[in-house]
Specification:
The protein is α+β, with helices and mostly antiparallel strands and 161 residues long. The protein is 28% helix and 28% strand. The protein has a single domain, classed as Alpha-Beta Plaits, CATH 3.30.70. InterPro entries: Hppk (IPR000550), Hppk_sf (IPR035907).
């Protein structure tokens, strides 16, 4: 059975846009994952640690036959393949960040994974690209993506040509 999952992508080190394109292609080539839709790219200010370069962010919707944890493992493996080193720094600079934002209408919370992502509602850099592909999607316990976006300040998040 296939589930639609929503994935956020971002990065701010190196040649980010081609890396995001390549990561999307790599995910689409994986068994059990098929990219259904992708957002525009957005230039966004850093979150948390603001003393770092701006990010480029996007979102994709995928159809997957993988379970939520197996999909998370595929995302983490893809990050590593593209040079991501998780050194424990939260909100720091990174070559590639892949976040499992939603997995169908599931609500999961364990030591490895929480979906829907618990901080979607506060992050314009996530909601803006997500609204490109899933504005009408209702995230369990959080609301409709388009409504969540309307409630945040997205003025500093700029679409790239």
């Amino acid at each position: 059975m296939s589930v639609t999952a929503l994935i956020g992508l971002g990065g701010n080190l190196g040649d980010v846009r081609p890396r995001l394109e390549a990561a999307i292609a790599a995910l689409d080539a994986m068994p059990g994952i098929r990219v259904l839709a992708r957002s525009r790219f957005y230039r966004t200010p850093p979150w948390g640690n603001t003393a770092q370069p701006e990010f480029i962010n996007a979102a994709i919707a995928v159809a997957t036959t993988l379970g939520a944890h197996a999909l998370l493992d595929a995302l983490l493996a893809t990050e590593r393949a593209f040079g991501r080193v998780r050194d424990g720094e939260r909100w720091g600079p990174r070559t590639l960040d892949l976040d499992l934002l939603a997995y169908g209408d599931a609500t999961l919370h364990d030591d490895r994974l929480t979906v829907p992502h618990p901080r979607i509602a506060e992050r314009a850099f996530v909601l803006l690209p997500l609204a490109d592909i899933a504005a009408e999607t209702v995230l369990p316990g959080q609301g409709r993506v388009g409504d969540l976006l309307a409630a945040v300040d997205a003025a500093e998040c700029l679409p790239l040509a």
